[in-house]
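B., you asked whether I could sanity-check this one before it goes into the benchmark set. Here's the sequence:
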Amino acid sequence: MPLARPVYHPAGHDAPLRAVLQDLKAGRWVSTRNLLTETPDWGLWTQRTQVLAAAVAGSDVVRAWLAEEPRSVAATVLHTRVTVERALRAHRAGHRHTNDLWREANSACRIASQTSPEDPVPWICLLALAQLDEGQRWDEHRVAAPEPMLFPGPWQLLAEAEKRDPGNREAYHRMLQFAYHRRPGAPLTEAVNFVHWASAAAPAGSPLHVLPLYVRVERYRREGGSERALDLHWIAEDATRGALRALQLWFDHAQPEAASLLDLNYLAHALWGAHHFHDAVRVFEALDPFYAVVPWTYRTTSPGDADAAAEAFVQARARCLHAARGPGPRD
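And here's what the prediction gave me:
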C-alpha cells in the first residue's frame, strides 16, 4: 500500500459525487440534478444529499435551483437538507436567529415529506432537528422507547425513516446525536444502550455494527485522557470485541467504495488501538487515498487541526504496516 499522505474529501470514494460537488460549489446545479436522479437506492441518496447540502449550506445555489425547477424532488429535498444544516450550525454557534431557522427547517421537512413520501431523508432531517429541542418540549421528541432500557425520544421519526429505508445509517446516527444532547453532561449509559440495541438487530453488512465504536470515541473525548489512557481504553476486552464485531459483521460484507468514510476511519482507528494490526491494514487499504479528521484528531494535542489529525493517521497506518510485515498476526 502506498504511504502517501492521505487526503480529505467529503465524498470519499464516490467519484461521481466528487465531480458534481465542484459544479455545485461553482453555482452550477444541472449535474447535481442528473446525479441525484440516477442515484439507485435510498442509502446512497441519503449519503449524497447530506454531503451536497453540507458543502453548499453557505450559498444560495440550491434556492436558485428550486426557483427554476419548483417541482423538482431532488431540489426540494436538497433545499430541506440545506435549511436543516443551517439551523444546526446556528444552534452550535448560539446564533440569535436559531429559532427562526429551526422553524424554517421544520416547515421544509414537512413539505419534503409530502413531495417525496417514500423518501427517508425528510424524516432523517426531522430527527436531526430534534436535538435542538432542549428539554424535550415537543411531544414527538419524548415518545416512549420500544425497549425498557432506552430513553424517551423521537422514536416515531426514527420509525418513519426505518419504514422507508431499514437500517439507514444516518437515521441511527441522528438518534445517537439526540441521545448525546438529551441530557447534556449526563453519563453515556443511554447512548451505550441505544447503540447496542441498534447493532444487535442489524443484519450482516449493516453499518449499524460500527455504532458502538462512535460511543467509545465519544467517551474518551469527554474524559480527555492522556495518550496512554487512550491506549488502555482501546485494548480493553469490550473495546476489542466491538472492533472485531464491526470488522466481521460490517466490513467483511460491505463494499468499501460505497462505505462511509467516517465508518472506515473509526474501524481502522479501533483495530489499531486494539493492536489488531493485520486487520487494521485491510481497512487502511480500503480507505486509500482518503482519511477523515475524526477520530484521529483525538490522538493529537490540537483537536480539530486537520494536519495534526492526518499525521496521527499516517503514524497509525505505518505502525500497522510495520506489524503486518512481521511473522505473526499480532505485533
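One thing to flag: The mean pLDDT is 93. Otherwise nothing jumped out at me.
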